[in-house]
Structure formats: structure tokens, C-alpha cells
Amino acid sequence: SFDFAARVERVEPSATLAISNKASELEAEGVDVVDLSVGEPDFPTPGNIVEAGQDAMDAGHTGYTPSNGIPRLRDAISEKLRGDGIDADSDEVIVTPGGKQALFETFQTLIDDGDEVVLMDPAWVSYEAMTKLAGGSLNRVDLAPYDFQLEPALDDLAAAVSDDTELLVVNSPSNPTGAVYTEAAFEGVRDLAVDHDITVISDEIYQRVTYGVDQPSLAAFDGMGERTVTINGFSKAYSMTGWRLGYLHAPEALASQAAKLHSHSVSCAVNFVQHAGVEAIENTDDAVTEMRDAFRERRDMLADLFAGHDVDVPVGDGAFYMMLPVAADDQSWCAGAIEDAHVATVPGSAFGSPGYARISYAASEDRLREAVDRLVAEGYL
Ligand code: PLP
């Protein structure tokens, strides 16, 4: 038998897998499943980006690139970051196959056995897995009592972090809650990070999916530039999930350590995809705005539908998720909802918050209405 490494034995397979397996199983039987479990925009990638990718392929951009990314894209990214108030240089940017890889490289670069990572629950599932894979220990702050906002939870966060904290992960707009943290919340994070000399990951992958509010970049706050790893990517803003393109920005000393992992693992992100990324950053504002407006309408419609059934859902100002309060045993609720109502959602416990089901509203208004009707008909709402 195999003698598996402790690091893989420490982690569980993605909790969303059970749901998507079940959804596929039902679909194979001919059942029409409303799948609200997936975290991806339902729009096609904007045409100008597809064309730029095709042109790049035709032009022969099919070989390896410099490990950290093609200069044009790193320049476009650092310019974008400077626009967000971050003192960024192209040399501090690593272009990765997806934001997930950027996060993975950051955890591997910073976390040693026993190092403490602080998360705010509910937290995106992979932060826990990445911590465990790196050998770190978790310390979690619960935002559920505060309607998932960070500002009212700052005292709890202050109680959780200490000089022993190596890394704090901030994700705003948040997956799975959609919450956008306030400026005061970011200032609170800054004060704690500076006081305790903590490195902070700011996962800003949903930065451009906000409704009527702006999401500032944490690294732009005084004192944060030298201790923040900014994560972003193209999946959510430009509907490019399958292209696999993201990046990290970090102080040069950190970026150059992460670059070693990068070069010895993925080598580089896909060449022609990086060219498409330049087009995305430079010429896609209208499509981004259109998608964002569509998400906003769906969010409002869905919240109204829930309210019509006396379900009060904390509605965030970003991303395309909401956490629906369900039975204490959220896993059974989700299993039942897919089995009986054929509506797929993800149990909140997968994110550290039992009692909720995460709903992705990156689906058409018709499908969202259908989902609510079915949940009501089967007694789930
Ligand atoms: N961070 C968060 C919070 C996410 O929800 C996701 C995707 O679901 C990612 C990072 C990674 O996205 P990608 O690897 O597609 O860029």
C-alpha cells in the first residue's frame, strides 16, 4: 500500500464535489437541476478577449513565457494596481494560472509547520486546505453573528490575532457571503497587522463585482504596502474561469521567494492566455459593467423573492453569492434540496458556517425564480 504524505492526508476533498457529483448524477438520469452551487459567471468570455487569445495563438505565442509572466501583462497589471493606489512595480507581480495558484504559492512561501493563519468565517474553502497543506494551524473568527460584516467584528479579530499570527486572510467582496468590508474595517485590519507585524493576504478576486460601492485595495492603506499580498485574477471580473489566469502582487522580497515555487511548479501561465489578459485589462470595461449590472438585478430579485417568503437573507454588496439561513443541519438541508427540489447549493459548514446554504446567483432570473418556486413547493423555504 502507499505511504501517503501527511500533508495530503490532512485535507479533505472539496466539499462542493459531493454536491456537483450529485447534480451530475441526477442530470444523467434526465432530471433538470437548477445548479446554484457553482462559483462562476454564466456569461461567455467577452468577444474582444476571445479574439485576442485567438490572434495570439495565430501569431505563434504558444511557447513558454518568462516564468513570472510576459512583460506587457505584468506592466498592465502593475499599472492597474497603481490606479488602485498600490505602490506596485512590474517586478513585484507574478502571473499565475488562476488566482488559486497565486494563493497556493503565497501560503507555501509564508507558512511553516505550526504557523498560525487567521481566517474569518465563513471563509472560502481553499484557505483552510492551503493552510493545512503548508502545515499551518488555523484560528478562525466568526462573522456570522455580525451579518458577515467585519467592522463590528474587529474586537473579535483583535482577540484572535497576536504576535504569533503569521498570516491573516481578508477576502472582500467575500465568497461565500457577498459582503464588502468597510473602509473602517480595513483600517482596523491595518492597525492590527501593523501592531503585531502580520502579513496579510488580500484576496480581491471579486473586486470588480460590486454594487454601488467601491472596494478599496488593502495594500493601498498606510503601512500595508510592505506587508500585503494582493491576489486578483480574470475569472470573475471577465468571465474567464476556464482560461486560468490570475496574479499576485507582493513586496519584492516576498515575490522573489514565491517566484521560486512558481518556476518549479507551473513554469508559467499559458502564453496566449496572457496576451488575452492584456486585452481584458485594457479594453473590457463595458462588458464588466454589463455583467455587474446583471448580477445586481439578480441579487435584488432573489432577495425580494426570499423576503416574500419571510426569509431574511443578509445581502452583501458584491460577488454573486448569498448565504441563505437554513436548518441547523445544513448538510442535510442541502442534500434534501438537491434530492427533492433539484436545486443545488453548498452547505455553509463547508465554509465554517453551519446553518446556511450558499447560493450562487450567477444564473438567469428565470432559473433563480424556478429555484425559489421549487424550494417552496418542496417545503424547503
Ligand atoms: N478566491 C476566491 C475567494 C474565489 O472564490 C476563487 C474562485 O472561486 C478564487 C480565489 C480563485 O479563482 P481562480 O483560480 O479561478 O482565479
Which regions are unreliable across 5 or more consecutive residues at pLDDT < 50?
A: none
- Provide mean pLDDT, rounded: 96
Ligands bound, unique? pyridoxal-5'-phosphate
Straight-line N-to-C gap: 47 Å
Question: What summary fits the major beta sheet?
Answer: 7 strands, mixed
Number of domains: 2
CATH class of the largest domain: Alpha Beta
Q: Could you give the count of β-strands?
A: 12
Order of helices and strands: HHEHHEHEHEHEHEEEHHHEHEEEH
Strand content: 5-15%
| Helix-strand makeup class | alpha/beta
C-alpha-based Rg, rounded: 20 Å
> What is the 3D form?
globular
CATH superfamily of the largest domain: Type I PLP-dependent aspartate aminotransferase-like (Major domain)
- CATH architect. name of the largest domain: 3-Layer(aba) Sandwich
Number of helices, where a helix is a run of at least 4 consecutive DSSP H or I residues? 13
The CATH topology of the largest domain: Aspartate Aminotransferase, domain 2
Name the strands of the widest sheet in spatial order: 2-8-7-6-5-3-4
* Helical amount: 40-55%
Protein name: Aminotransferase
GO molecular function: pyridoxal phosphate binding; transaminase activity
Organism: Halobellus salinus
Keywords: Aminotransferase, Pyridoxal phosphate, Transferase
